[in-house]
């Protein structure tokens, strides 16, 4: 069973500190941590990672003894360095003592060709940032939202697109043009996740987009934060929450494990294969009722 920890909350610092202790704290001591957040654009939460969420995660990792923390990012809607500055990440990195890396500025030495053993839908495979391959630990934080440009939803699996190259620095090949023009876009999103492993995922669902997205949309307030290790399980729970809140036709239709991002990721061995393999763990009485509602929605598909 894959445990997904759940807490109803509006205080991010308090909630994240409670969620982090569910993990093996000692395993982070002295380790190099690569951190992937959600800074696709300079639009505020839930389009982008809330600064309080980022701050709470970094402080928590430092308390766990992490020796080095690097946030690496590539924005899809705007200049990455400007996005990080406008969203306060650059200032926060100075205050809290973590490094930031703009992936768009890496030369060829910063990337590695990823050619999985599996047959994939990418014509040219893709390039993955070495930062995420070389780190001792990888932590990801994503938002809870739909995606109107073909992804249908953008949770932890979709957030991984931001750690592969937009352009090949050697020949200029544009991987994002290939992705966004392909009829297999959602399967290709899942396939990106073969390139790296996650040790911890935090989904900030204090607010969410249930329609529109990724930079703007219909906003609701689920007031929930999730934590787990398994990207497939985390996204399945995220989709269940979106369905509970009333979301798009694309996210609502069919079984959750037949959603193409989730189905492909499960087929590739990236996580659980069914809702029966997910154990929701509410951390207080207030969270238990919502957890039961999510579990019922998961059980339907």
Strand content: 15-25%
Mean pLDDT: 97
Q: Any idea how many domains?
A: 1
Helix fraction by DSSP (H/I, runs of at least 4) = 25-40%
Class by SSE composition: alpha/beta
Q: Counting H and I runs of at least 4 residues, what is the number of helices?
A: 12
CATH topology: Rossmann fold
The CATH class, by name, is Alpha Beta
For the record, the CATH architecture stands as 3-Layer(aba) Sandwich
Unreliable residue stretches: none
Describe this structure in words.
Helix content is 34%, strand content 24%. The protein has a single domain, classed as Rossmann fold (3-Layer(aba) Sandwich). The protein has helices spanning 12-20, 51-63, 80-86, 89-96, 130-134, 156-159, 175-181, 185-192, 231-245, 249-252, 260-267, 285-299; strands at residues 2-8, 32-36, 68-73, 99-102, 111-114, 126-129, 137-147, 152-154, 200-212, 217-220, 224-228, 278-282. Helix 1 (12-20) packs parallel to helix 2 (51-63). The protein has 12 helices and 12 strands. Strands 1, 2, 3, 4, 7, 8, 9, 10, 11 and 12 form a 10-stranded mixed β-sheet that branches. Strands 5-6 form a two-stranded antiparallel sheet. The protein has 301 residues and is of the alpha/beta class. A hairpin with a 4-residue loop joins strand 7 (137-147) and strand 8 (152-154). The model has no long low-confidence stretch (mean pLDDT 97). It starts with a strand and ends with a helix.
């Amino acid at each position: 069973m894959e445990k997904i920890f759940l807490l109803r909350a509006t205080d991010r610092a308090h909630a994240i500190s409670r969620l982090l202790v569910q993990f093996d704290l000692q395993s982070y001591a002295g380790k190099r941590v690569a951190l992937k957040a959600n800074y696709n654009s300079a639009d505020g939460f839930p389009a982008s990672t809330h600064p309080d969420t980022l701050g709470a995660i970094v402080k928590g990792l430092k308390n766990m003894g992490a020796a080095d923390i690097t946030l690496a990012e590539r924005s899809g809607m705007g200049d990455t360095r400007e996005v990080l500055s406008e969203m306060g990440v650059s200032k926060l990195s100075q205050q809290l003592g973590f490094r930031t890396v703009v992936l768009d500025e890496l030369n060829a030495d910063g990337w590695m060709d990823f050619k999985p053993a599996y047959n994939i839908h990418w014509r040219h495979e893709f390039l993955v940032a070495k930062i995420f391959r070389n780190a001792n630990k990888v932590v990801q934080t994503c938002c809870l939202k739909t995606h109107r440009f073909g992804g249908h939803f953008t949770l932890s699996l979709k957030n991984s697109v931001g750690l592969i190259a937009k352009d090949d620095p050697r020949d200029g090949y544009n991987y994002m043009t290939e992705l966004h023009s392909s009829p297999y876009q959602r399967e290709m999103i899942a396939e990106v996740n073969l390139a790296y492993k996650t040790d911890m995922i935090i989904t900030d669902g204090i607010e969410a987009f249930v329609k529109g997205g990724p930079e703007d949309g219909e906003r609701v307030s689920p007031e929930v934060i999730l934590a787990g290790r398994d990207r497939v399980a985390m996204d399945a729970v995220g989709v269940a929450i979106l369905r509970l809140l009333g979301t798009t036709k694309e996210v609502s239709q069919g079984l959750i494990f037949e959603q193409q991002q989730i189905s492909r990721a499960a087929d590739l061995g990236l996580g659980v294969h069914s809702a029966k393999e997910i154990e929701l763990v509410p951390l207080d009485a207030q969270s238990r009722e919502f957890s039961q509602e999510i579990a019922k929605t998961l059980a339907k598909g």
